[in-house]
Design brief:
Radius of gyration: 13 Å
Order of helices and strands: HEEEHHEE
CATH class: Alpha Beta
CATH topology: HIT family, subunit A
Structural class: alpha+beta
Strand content: 15-25%
Number of domains: 1
Strand order of the largest sheet: 1-2-3-5-4
CATH superfamily: HIT-like
Number of helices: 3
Helix content: 25-40%
Bound molecules: adenosine monophosphate, zinc ion
Shape: globular
Amino acid sequence: MAGEPQADCLFCKIVAGEVPATVVRETETTLAFRDINPQAPTHILVIPKVHHPDAASLAAAEPKIAADVLREAGEVAAEEKSESYRIVFNTGSGAGQTVFHAHAHVLGGRGLQWPPG
Ligand code: AMP
Ligand code: ZN
């Protein structure tokens, strides 16, 4: 069922505490932790605790939680003292999505090129 934990999902396992992560913030609905393979000095993932495969699916099913993810992305950037930062939602394998549990990448701490690759 949509939103239920998925046994084969890495981020559901992180939410359940079955896989360790460097958690920087937690709310009732979200978890923020450091990316294991950082692409910038600040590279934090903000995820909903509920399982949805990508950001748009999350927003369609749970708009309040999608907003929670965005708000937490801003809180994480503020805690990292990143005045300028980028929020990225890779969607689909062709765009680089490898974990099919919605997540925001919060990237900062260095100059970020535009347009992205
Ligand atoms: P994406 O490629 O957009 O699906 O993003 C998935 C991200 O998860 C990548 O940036 C990975 O480096 C990151 N990642 C994979 N495994 C872990 C883990 N165990 N803890 C933290 N980040 C992870
Ligand atoms: Zn999941």
